[in-house]
Fold this protein.
Amino acid sequence: MNPLKLARRIVSGRRAAQPAPAAPQPLSAASAYGGSVQVRHVDAGSCNGCEIEIAAAFGPVYDAERYGARLVASPRHADVVLVTGVVTHNMAEPLRRTVAATPRPRVVIALGDCACDGGVFGQGFGVRGVVADVTDVDLQIPGCPPEPDVIVETMRRVTGR
Ligand code: SF4
């Protein structure tokens, strides 16, 4: 949204959130979550471009929370592990442990080209591989970086809303 338009909406007190598009096809696992999922984000070696889009997806304009997706701090509380970046050597084991600490049924999402296929950093000297080289991946969100509405759409597939 145009920042000026957003500022005008805030000053006028009107709702800033984008209108809700039609619900996407839910993931088969969605029925297990009752319309609400907790999401643990792991940066495994991102440039932070994907993080900016995640912040926008969970912010007041795109507002993923209105569809039942919420970021949490602990994998023990999470249903979804959202992974960004190529996996560096230093982050391979922490990522594996984070996924292992997340109760089942869980969904692992690789977000961004780096996480999905290595993107622009895949051949770096400090890189162990892509997310699928370290843990099972259920969903991929390609893009460098993916746009917030695509991130929200994927979250809606998991919440089923
Ligand atoms: S996909 Fe693009 S924006 Fe995301 S971490 Fe890789 S280079 Fe950065």
